[in-house]
Amino acid sequence: TMKGSVISVLVVLAVVDRLAGGLEHRSYDYTKYHTMDEISAWMNQMERENPDVVSSMIYGQTYENRNITLLKIGFKSTTPKKAVWMDCGIHAREWIAPAFCQHFVKEILGSYKTDSNVNMLFKNLDFYITPVLNMDGYIYSWRDKTTRLWRKSRSPGTGNCTCFGTDLNRNFYANWGMVGISRDCCSDIYNGPTALSEPEAKAVTDFLGAHQNEVLCYLTIHSYGQLILIPYGHPNISAPNYEELMEVGLAAAKAIKAVHGTSYKVGTAPDILYANSGTSRDFARLIRIPYSFTFELRDKGNYGFILPEDQIQPACEESYQGAMSIVNYVHDKNFKSAAITGTLATVF
Amino acid sequence: MKTFCSVWLLLSLVELSPAPPASQEPPLACTGAPDPAPPQPETAEDMASTGDLEPTHYPARRAAQVALHYLNTHHGSPFRVFGLQQVHKASAEDVAAGGRKYKLDFSVTDWGSGSATMNKSSEEFFSNTTDVLNIAGPALRCSADVLFPRTERHSAPEVQLHCEALHQINSTAQEEDAFYQKYISPDSAVSARDIPDSFGNVSEEMQPFWRLARVAASFIMLRESSENTEFNMAKVASVTQQESSGEQLMLEFVVLLHDLPSQVTHKHTHRLWTLMDTEAVCVLTVCVCSAGDRSVEAAGVLVSRQRRQGPADRVAAQMPSRHQTPKLTL
């Protein structure tokens, strides 16, 4: 009959659609490292599957002309909302960092409907999440085994220098060039010919500058070391809210430890790691984003940058609790009454 | 019973070079280009900290890492590699001869094997993985004096180290023996690259080579360390078995060493010889090539260590300067 054949056509179309689009949905493996192409496709998928709460924004171009893209996640609002910024993969070889951003996105998207805490965060905040900031470097680190430990961007050297790349996390306008850098363009901590010479650093700078009044919290994700670093990288400069930042950091480290027993240390970079300058974390604090933290994820040097895939899940689980500890603190400080009377927003 | 406890380690500081020809002579011939200067940061670190040190801060941790490298040169093996777990207490003082001496109280864990058991309970563990090699074993408490000399040219730090219950660690002699027997056969020709691979995988067969590379790298990391460095082995670029002469298992490693403060990854090539030994005292010999010199006598360091079953708690040795003539005892 006519009706029967219409139904069969619809069934065929539905099956085809599932084969084409649904396959990725079932098979995206958060316990594996992914290529840039896979991550980009995954970002599109997150946006497609969660149109109520996810939109993407291109906020700059890499040296090799790739679109630097973030996912904006939260309940849509006609008025500007306060925000939390997270970037991963500013250093190419720190593969666990982009893996963490993907895990973080998966977690909040998977829980905002049922978890009243996450639901409240979605109501009051937007998350701006960049899974891979240094896309050129990340892609280069995937090229072959000899490039796995690449760190910097992929802009060519200037002047007489034949080496490539600038350390993006030394290139920001934050005490640029003062300490913890190298003027040798072949060095892994080369801070660039000038501050903000790198389009990737400029993209973040421009975005944060434009959203200065909205961004409450700046999180930048790295590895390795198992550390939470607070501003500033210069040993003689203290953040005005140093005590508070230490408190919040220590609470996050406690939350991390509760998951799998992993110890994180908390402090300024000059105290617990090394002095540095031109970092994105310092820049964020300097433009008065009050809560600015660097996460250095697992491990402590056994595998270092090349963390085995079977540690992705536990590393992400514990770091998620650490990040959420900070996000919740920041949220509660700004939305006190909402914290007390938070209700599940009707979404659907 | 023969024990795998003698290691002859040859260091040739060659940045990028083809493998030197295998030698049938006593394995102390050095070849290669002059070693590159150790990495120095562009700016001087503030090292004015004297007296009690904050254990979580980097000066204490870097000094503890040096003690750890020392520990691994003495007690590391294809089946045992120690990692720093935590610094409990630390202090530093300037010394009359010109240098700074750190006193440390810290804990280490055995990253090398989940089978190492000790009497102490573990403070840190990864409970969510099934791979035993990701599980740090129970903690071992150590104390160390680490002296960083202040000389115009870099010289190696000097370490005195004592770890509790070191002799209680389960011996890995059986595994070492099996490892040696497996690879000493004439047709064995191990050759591998990139350990771990880009995804952190180390095959079961390569695990002992990975650890051995780390132990061997510890000699270099120890020697190159200063208050401004913090070294870890990033990966093994390659391991190639050389033609063995008689009882010697001969391996050439190319390793990449990562220094945290400078973020630089250094490439080092070194050769490792093993010798089956029935003596009570095992010997490690390290030969460091100085510029252009190809003779054994140019530089040498002898560190003797006692067999693991013996009373091996107090291990004290000095790292002489690079021009000391080696003395061999077998």
From TrEMBL, chain A:
A single GO BP: proteolysis
Domain Peptidase M14: 32-330
Keyword Metal-binding: yes
GO cellular component labels: extracellular space
Cofactor: Zn(2+)
Signal peptide: 1-22
SMART domains: Zn_pept
Active site location: 296
Superkingdom of this protein's organism: Eukaryota
Gene Ontology molecular functions: metallocarboxypeptidase activity; zinc ion binding
Keyword field: Carboxypeptidase, Hydrolase, Metal-binding, Metalloprotease, Protease, Signal, Zinc
InterPro entries assigned to the protein according to its UniProt record, in alphabetical order: CARBOXYPEPT_ZN_1, Peptidase_M14
The family this protein is said to belong to: Belongs to the peptidase M14 family.
Protein name listed in UniProt: Carboxypeptidase O
Source species taxonomy: Eukaryota, Metazoa, Chordata, Craniata, Vertebrata
Automatic annotation (TrEMBL), chain B:
Keywords for this protein: Protease inhibitor, Repeat, Signal
Protein name: Latexin
Polar residues: compositionally biased ranges: 321-330
Recorded GO CC terms: extracellular space
Species the sequence originates in: Cyprinus carpio
PANTHER family on file: LATEXIN (PTHR28591)
Annotated ranges, domain Cystatin LXN-type: 49-171, 191-296
Short name of one Pfam family: LXN
Start and end residues of each stretch annotated as Disordered: 21-55, 309-330
Gene3D superfamilies tied to this protein: 3.10.450.10
Keyword Signal: yes
Family matches, as InterPro entries: CYSTATIN_LXN, Cystatin_sf, Latexin
Signal peptide: 1-24
